[in-house]
Structures are given as C-alpha cells and as structure tokens.
Write a structure and sequence with these properties.
about 300 residues, alpha/beta, eight-stranded mixed beta sheet, 14 helices, 8 strands, globular
Length: about 300
Amino acid sequence: MELGFIGLGRMGANMVRRLIKDDHEIVVYNRTPEKTKEIAGEGAKPSFSIEELVGMLAKPRAVWVMVPAGDATEAQIAELLEHLEPGDTIVDGGNTNFHDDIRRHADLSAKGVNYIDAGTSGGIWGLQVGYCLMVGGDAAAVDPLIPIFTSLAPPGGFLHVGGPGAGHYVKMVHNGIEYGLMQAYAEGFEILHASDYELDLAAISDLWMQGSVVRSWLLELAARAFKANGADLEHIKGYVADSGEGRWTIQEAIDHDVPAPVITLSLLTRFRSRQDDSYGAKVLAALRNEFGGHEVKTE
C-alpha cells in the first residue's frame, strides 16, 4: 500500500527499506535532502517539501512521522495539518508522551484527521529482525494500516493495544523495564570485572545465552560490545543519557501508587553517571570523617 514517511534517521530509513522490500509504495521526506535522495535510490519516491509529499499521495492519505519526540514532532504535525484533509491519517512512531497523544487525537479529530500513536522498538536492528509495534488509536484508523504494521513487525510483533495514547503508554513502560534490565546486567558484569578471576566477559555472555534464565537480546548485545571494545570498555565514557520514557514511567508509577524501586534507581544511576565528581558523595565522605574519623581522599 501507499504511505508517506517523514524522518529518515537511523530508525526511519531502515523502516522505509523494510517497507520497500515488502513492495509498499513509500513517498519520503527528510529535512536534509541528501537522505531523501539516498533512499530514493533504493526504491522510495522522493519529495522535498511537506506540500510535495502530501500532493504525491492518493486520498485518503496516511503519513508516518518518525522524528524526535517533543518540539520536532509538534512542528512536523502542525505543518502536515496545513496540507492534509479530513479522512487522512497521521502516525507518530516516535517516543511521544502519551498525554501529548491524547491531546493531539482530540485536536486532530476536531479537524477530521485520524491520529495513531505507534510505539516502535527495534533500534538499528529492525531492518533485519523487524520492529515491535505497540499501536494506539481508534480501530477505524488503525485497521486500514495493518498491512504497513505487519510488514514492519516480525511475526506476532504488532498489537493494537488500545485507544489514543495506549501505544506510547505501553512503549513507555517497556522502556522503563529496559532501564532495569540494563542496570542489572551492568552491575553483574561490573562485579565480574572487579573479581580476582581473569574472566572472559564476552564468553560468559555467550555462555549465558545457552539455556540460562537470564538470556536475552540485551545479553547478546553485551557480548557484541565486549568483543568489539574489550572487557575494560576503555574507549567508552561512562556517561548514560535518557530520552524521557524512564522518567515518565516513574511518574506514572507515583501517580498510581505503584512501587517501582528498580526502575527508579536505574534512572537515578544514569543521573550519577553524568557527574564527574558527585557533590553528594563528597558530603557523605565528609560526614564519615566527622563522626568516625574515617579517611578522606583529597584531590
């Protein structure tokens, strides 16, 4: 089927490639025309403005937006609305806050335009293995696009999880869980790395993939990282960013009185990674020195 696609970054470009491989007709637009031309060379139809993209699509149109969540997505949807008509559909595949989805759905519905929120997981590997799609929105808007979702996802990897905002809500919690899993692996491998044994962490990662209860795709990626960078990871700075979903998950847990200590501490550990020297740790050291005479290390 035909789809407009905006945003040809690391995920977006590979999503388009996967759709083309399944014989869908994809009209693409990217802020930088070089990426548009590159994907056009692989079978997509290029456009170089939002107006041109919309004009190339048959009615009723469907346009997938795959740009960073927040201001970039807001601006892109606002520009699209200048050209779309009642009956058209916008799909937001970024990591949008579900509250924004609910607002947008109401605003767009008033204009007769459908809105779908599609939580998308798969990262840079999605072209090969497919994207897990958690889709929210009205069934009348979602159902016509099932061929698109089915092409993007692996078998069993697409689900219409609920109404407006539900897709990004499920993706938000998915990412919160991811924080906790990653932190547990990080702590375990740090213990192994600090031990008195000379342990091959890549080999241990591979070993744990063979029938262990802790096997996972993240563990496969840990093995790849150790093989590529060495057990010391000496070329990687221990600075860990977050893109917001962990914070939103924790806020949702607070709002519903749900204890979520693992996800919460995982996020706070990421904050700690961004400090060259923690002031809080200095206070702790000073207090231990004051009440117990414990040694203080000086710079």
